[in-house]
Amino acid sequence: MHLNKDILQLPIFETASRGCLRSLSLHIKTSFCTPGEYLLRQGDALQANYFVCSGSLEVLRDSVVLAILGKGDLIGADLASRDPVIKTNADVKALTYCDLQYIGLRGLREVLQLYPEYASKFAADIHQDLTFNLREGSEMEGLGRFARSPRLSQASQ
């Protein structure tokens, strides 16, 4: 669990039991991106929620920058529906070298089934913790959360 402490210290996980956190940690992986590399393309099947450990990424739709993401940001989608495939609503491209931790949505669903008492709390809170919601159909929700981020709103001034 120590290797995954960055992602597991997010507010979304603060009410999870120790056993739940251990189970989640088994599904957390590390990824790296180089400048100019696309992490996701619009219309891709979203496989994971990503936590930015270091570096900067931009969220683009039709070549328009919607968000700049950095250390501490969480991107991905809620698990509100039982859709077997979640399509992304934007591109995510690295601006700098990036270290990311991610948890696969399949593994996340498995753990939430094992811990139903935490699953309802997770479902209620994920919208507040996602810096940008990449779920197709959540365009305005993603932008709304982005606009409320104090760190990000300073960058636009």
UniProtKB/TrEMBL annotation:
GO MF: voltage-gated potassium channel activity
Record SMART domains: cNMP
GO cellular component, one term: plasma membrane
PROSITE patterns for the chain: CNMP_BINDING_3
GO biological process: regulation of membrane potential
Span of domain Cyclic nucleotide-binding: 12-129
Transmembrane segments: none
Full protein name: Cyclic nucleotide-binding domain-containing protein
Upper classification of the organism: Eukaryota, Metazoa, Chordata, Craniata, Vertebrata
